[in-house]
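One-letter codes give the sequence; the fold follows as tokens. An example follows:
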Amino acid sequence: MALTYADLIEVDLGRLGSAVADWDSTVKGLKTAAEHARTGMLAKSDAARWAGVNATVTRGFVTETAKEIADLHTEAGSIHHVLDDAHTELVSLQKQIRTAQAEARKWGISVQDHGDGTVHCVYPHVRGDTDARTAEENTARDELNGRINRILAHAAEIDASVTRALNKSHGNDAHNAGHSSYESLDDAQAERAVELAKLGPEMTDKQYLELNSIMKFNARDADFSTDFYKSLGGPKDALEFYGRMSLNGTMGDNKDRLALAQQLQKNMGLALASATDPDNKSHLPASWSSEFRKLGAQPIPLYRGAGGSSAPYGYQLLGGMLRYGNYDARFINPIAEHIVQLHRKDPLRFTGNRPAPSGSDLDWGFNPSGKNGAGYDPLTSVLEGLGHSPEAAKKFFTDAPTVYREDGTVDKNATLGYSYFDELNKADFEWAPDSIAHAGSDEAKHAREMGPDALGHALEAATTGAAWDADPPVLRRDEKTWEVMEKVILRYNVASEGGPPPEIMKDSLARMGAAYIDDLNYSLMNWGDTGDELGRGRIFGDSSDGWERKAFETADARNFMMLVAGDEEGYKTMSAAQQIYTASGLASHEDNRDDGLAFAHNSAKANGILDESRAHQIREDFKNDETAKSLEMGKQGEWRKTLMTGVVTAVAAGGTALVLGPAAGIVATTAVPVLLGTGASVVSTAYGNHTAQYLEDSAYKNDAEALRTVQGLEAVGEHGAWLPVYNYANQIGMTQVEILDLNRQIEGSYGDGKDAISNAEQVSQ
């Protein structure tokens, strides 16, 4: 019978707590009894000088009795460990689900219990109501629906694991104690997971689902993950298991089996990250990393007789797991370094064993997720791993490299002679095609884009201090992340000798630009190299993640902004970030008019740079088609109008940034640093709302004619640059005469930004 929503809400876990206490007492009593048996009757029996048949029988009986008492103590201890852990976890889950229940009531959401361990959250119909809901209300409903179902699934998995562990501890034999013994519930769950894993591809879908269920809720638990990988055997055994399950899941068109393989891939990656972190109390020995490197360039036959060119390399198998999890640098970076060094020697060495194209079965391989390749190129895989491991990514791009031999051992006498950043960002870097598509097909055309996309993700993690797809996003910048960002800006700008970035990387560059919008603005306030003398450090202060301002070279910052904002999506991301940052800065300077106006002028200049960068690219793209150019300008203008209302929709966890919302027309997980007011330490919802007021389109509310006059990118861009400043002027009590003069000044600052790009445009022609 399934554990239901009502069960978890209402169950009295105090009774389970009492049972745990009773078993604790039982364990202590049996420990005393076992000790007395060992030192008492057993010791006396062994020392007695008996002879004859009766002596043999009696001595055997005493020995067996002492053993049974010891076994009872072991069994009781196992039961106590399992129940104690279960009680702790269920209490936490019950608290979580009751919190969710309270939130549902607050929103007026009905939680419909299906009675099978799942629920459905809905807004009940109210007679006469249109049932129309806001985006915020629908988001709350969907989030609660997913959260409650995850909690119930976790509770059900604990219930099943406890039942199984108790049965194994007891052994279903009332006359024979001493069966399976567990030090914790994790111990029991790891044992069951490995039992299922030993079945390999012979697992039924039901067994596969059970394995994934156990791993899903325990993969980040170091005790479980370490036990699991140790029980599989060694590094080679883990690779073989993963490889067989990946091929089994990606072969053919069995969607259910593929979904199970995708979940296993994620679970094994998360578990490997947990098990290989030396800072966890339980972890695998460091030899696992060196053994993985040793196996990396070796073929690993997955089936008997499957050797030679058909066997995958160790790194191809490992790469599939590395795509998930936040890995410690001490584990993943030596592997990443080794892979890059092997790639430099032979870019195609790992893709030479790809199977021949097999019709539509293009996902057959070692990356069941299907994201960025089929899993034959480990360079793409390890870069995706770094994209989820920010500390490791930062160190990878900044630490001095280590040279590795072919077998993965360190060559202490060798020097590398190049940096990984420079190597991977070379214009002529040869990316391996991670696809088994037919040459010339549409799929094959994109095969070499997967590596650059993964590189962009790794750079995002290295520059922001968070996984590239973290949700919600946070910023954790420091000297090293800034160092990597400086490398990015120097490499990717309109004046770079290294050439333009791969098209697939532009979204990553835009998100990195948004994450450093504060430093980019700070860098622009340096005309005549007088920024520091004029107090820009005071004007810009520190940002919401605690990172102190640090300037890039002004020309480099401007050229980077020009490159990124030339792209449509990059322009949207950077413009939205600029709007938020401008609004936050003005909100923070309400008590300092002079600094606020200085900030406003600089922000107007940054807006001019971004707007003119996009306009320049539109002119380039449609230089021979005036109609198409006008349409594109109009489209950008329409987008900017939506940007001015409601762009700030949430506050990121930890108060480190505001999040770009749906109104921006871009992904909702782009973090933007903001300038906090005096004395503020974190971004609050109230501060976010106050910041948003500077973006409100108040000037248009009662002026339909004015709205109709805004036709293109330039007009809307000018309005967007002026509006938050206008609201600021009103907030600090400027007179109409002062505002009129300010308007002319801001127009000049905005024009300065546009002129900077126009001048660069003329030079480039």
About this structure: The chain is about 60% helix and 0% strand. The longest helix spans residues 53-107. The two ends are 74 Å apart (CA to CA). The first strand starts at residue 110 and ends at 113.
